[in-house]
Amino acid sequence: MSEERYQDQVATIEANMQQAWKAEGLDATDLDAPADRPHRYVLGMFPYPSGNAHLGHVLVFTLSDALARLGRYKGEEVLHPLGWDAFGLPAENAAIQNQRQPAEWTAANIDRMRNEQLARAGFSFDLDLELNTSSPLYYQWTQWLFLKLYEHGQIDRQQSWVNWDPVDQTVLANEQVIDGKGWRSGAPIERRLMEQWSIKITDYAEDLWNGLDTLDGWSERAVAAQRNWIGRSEGADIAFGVDGSDANIEVFTTRPDTLFGVTSLTLAPENPLVVQLTAPDRLDAVNEYVAAALKKSEVDRQAGLERSGVAIGRDAIHPLTGAAVPIYISDYVLGGYGTGAIMNVPAHEARDHDFARESGLPITTVVLPAEGANGEDGALFEDDGVLVNSGEFDGMSSADARRAITDAVEAAGKGRRVVRYRLRDWTVSRQRFWGAPIPMLHGEGGTFEPVPEADLPVKLPPEFAHIGKSAGEAQGSPLATDQDWLAALSPTTGEAMTREPDTMDTFMCSAWYAWRFLDPTSEAIAWQPERAERWMPIDYYIGGLEHANQHLIYFRYISRFLHSIGLTPTPEPVARFLDNGMVRLGGHKMSKSRGNTITPTEIIDRTGADALRLYIASDTPFERDRDWDDSGLEAKQRFLARVYSAYGRWALPRGVLDEAPEAGEAGTQLMRAMLAALAQAAEAIDERRSFHTAVAAIHSAFNLLADAAKDESIEPAARAYAAQQFLKLLSLFAPHLADHLWRTHCSDSSIFAHRWPDTEALGSAAAETVTVAVQIGGKRRGELQLSPEASDDHVAAALEDTQEPTIRNQLDGKTIRKLIVVRTPDGAPKLVNVVV
Ligand code: ANZ
């Protein structure tokens, strides 16, 4: 009966359990469960079906699974679904390269990931609710959502500047442009003006901003990322007159306190006033500059180190002093932000400072660090301070002056307070095949009409025309060349029209999938609003922030929109957002190109899924990046082997004990401590999202049982009760072994058909832990969190299991020769001295 036995058995145990769970249907959700029953919606961000599940997926679903299983134990109705974010460019690229239809490639990948990869980890998904965004049954409703947005004035047809990827031949969203290059192709991005469908998310900028204050269940960094994306700025629009013209140039500034330091104005090259105001002798220079600027991406324009620019040969008139200041154009001023024009304050803004130095413009100091400070002439000072050279405003603080100068400008009719957001409208047109067709029809002379709801879905043609074509041949919108597909009739006049050949940004598919899980197979409705009442907002949403920030903006926007039309109960879609860290190898993100990947499948082959899951949830808080460590994984495998063989040895009486049996002091103590461990773990998971603490509780709870096995005074029933509760705790992360042991030693039914015990049943034993300092070779190396009752064996076991890197480094590959536990007067461990 040794630990090898677990190693030999694990593959069989896990396969058997997975088969049993499937047959028993324990993971099924009753979407219409009575509303007064507690509901728990746990959602891991749905994967893109690349064909390869990775450790990031395992981490996300290990956490979601623990939350789901705990919810079911507590008697809640749990929704824990799996879906596929299945549209997108890789399928198209694969089709071009490998001559496979995107639909076929995607379906094969999904089958592989579901059946061969994720299934082996034993996550408790209700697969009857599975959805796939590329199936017509799903995208019909993505199109329906587009029509709803259109109906409510949220869709615009705009000529807009887009990021054009010349290699992938497609428009990219701003965030798909990284350092001025396409996120996939790496090609330098060009700017092009194109007719696009866009969604007026900017209408919701203020709501999305204010809503951030309600996101108590989100991490600070997730909220900060949202804040940064929305980018709220308070300031003023100030109008400057133009010498010899009745035009006005409005500038947006967040620093009206620096108004007296303005020594020039700068227009964005694409500002329409440029054409109107440029002096005839400056036209050639200006045109040349504009043409060059428009070739650059927005990112490059802002990042550009050289502050180039040209004068347009005109002066603007200062709204308060009447002074004349020259007007320039420069590409660091963006056409799409603010008013597309700025006032230059070279003494107080770094870019303006550089620009003024390069263009030989005066630098006028108007803010000093403090009253009476000696401003160095021409120096840059960007902070708030006290005003000088600003007429009646001299001596005011920047904050007061912002108010007072804005008031003065307003009183003079030359401007007003404004709040601006960096958030832009959401351009959703994509010149791609593998996406949801945009349900619009084009008529003569630029007219358009929506496809009637009854005619949805607008299905993709079955064949992708660019299959197997070289990049040179496969250009433009694939659907634009399919004449049969394009032909349509106007639903109102019956005249010939042309279908919109662009498909939707895949962020649109993922912006509403949480609702579709509530009715994933309905052909009649996107989801039943009563179900949204019941299930939304999501209780726990889990995913990596790295890719998710933007998704969360769209998701929050769609939720707010749906709320405004009565289709979801709350404006925010996610009560608690758990942004997990990354699993790295050797300090680097795992990636194929680096050749440093480990796949979940190879680990499961080696150690089983339970060890993987227990390991991936342990030691490091889930929100931090973790470095993969084989010895940590192996320690978990050894731990599970110890559990396995201990249950084999203990010969516990069979039969489920729903209530704690009568017992003497030691027995009651054991049961109380076990219940406390369960309570502590449940609280750690549900309330604090501290999964690694819950795993630590599993280890210390097992030590309780191991110690109790040696205590003859404890009744067998008390031991059996504690051992049964322990399996429930273990099952949150190691469901296969826990259920196997349950069925072998306790009852014929699955452990998951049973309930979490009333952890207060024996009075509450506050699950205290004490911090135990660890000294190895005479030096302090780290700490352990242990129960105050931990025995010496217990401490030794905890040392063996810990993944604390500073301790691990000292222990790996060495044998512990001696271990001395120093205790406080009441017997709690305080320090452990290890000799290796
Ligand atoms: C004068 C000034 C003086 C400014 C000073 C700043 C400091 P945020 O916070 O991002 O909203 N700005 C305005 N519109 C711009 C555009 N289209 N392209 C590039 N820059 C633009 O930034 C607002 C500030 O960015 C504005 O305040 C303006 O410069 C600049 F000591 O006006 B400021």
Attached small molecules: ligand ANZ
Radius of gyration, whole Å: 32 Å
Q: What summary fits the major beta sheet?
A: 7 strands, mixed
Count of discrete alpha- or pi-helical segments spanning 4 or more residues: 26
Number of strands: 35
The oligomerization state is single chain
Structural class: alpha+beta
- Low confidence ranges: none
- Characterize the overall form: globular
Helix percentage range: 25-40%
Query: How large a portion of the residues is in β-strands, by DSSP E?
Result: 15-25%
Mean pLDDT: 92
Distance between the termini: 29 Å
Describe this structure in words.
The structure is a single chain. 37% of the residues lie in helices and 20% in strands. It is α+β, with helices and mostly antiparallel strands. The strands form 10 sheets. Strands 11, 12, 13, 14, 15, 16 and 19 form a 7-stranded mixed sheet that branches. A hairpin with a 5-residue loop joins strand 34 and strand 35 (829-835). Helix 18 packs across helix 19. The longest helix is centred in the last third of the chain and has 22 residues, at 665-686. The protein is globular. The mean pLDDT is 92. Bound molecules: ligand ANZ.
Strands, helices and their partners?
Blueprint (H helix, E strand, L loop, with lengths): L3 H21 L14 E6 L10 H19 L3 E3 L3 E2 L4 H10 L3 H16 L13 E2 L3 H16 L3 E11 L4 E3 L4 E2 L2 E2 L7 E10 L5 H7 L5 E2 L1 H11 L1 E11 L2 E9 L10 E4 L5 H5 L5 H13 L2 H6 L6 E8 L6 E6 L11 E4 L5 H10 L7 E2 L17 E2 L10 H14 L3 E7 L4 E2 L1 E2 L9 E3 L5 E3 L32 H4 E3 L6 E4 L3 E2 L1 H5 L2 H4 L12 H7 L2 E7 H20 L9 E7 L2 E3 L2 E2 L10 H8 L1 H9 L8 E2 L2 H21 L14 H22 L4 H19 L6 H16 L3 H11 L24 E7 L2 E8 L5 H10 L3 H7 L6 E6 L5 E7 L1
Parallel strand pairs: 1-2, 1-27, 3-4, 10-28, 13-15, 27-28, 29-31, 32-35
Antiparallel strand pairs: 5-6, 5-9, 7-8, 9-20, 11-12, 11-14, 11-19, 13-16, 14-15, 17-18, 21-26, 22-23, 22-25, 24-25, 29-30, 32-33, 34-35
Helix pairs in contact: 1-20, 1-24, 2-19, 3-4, 7-17, 18-19, 19-20, 20-22, 21-22, 21-23, 22-23, 22-25, 23-24
Bound molecules: ligand ANZ.
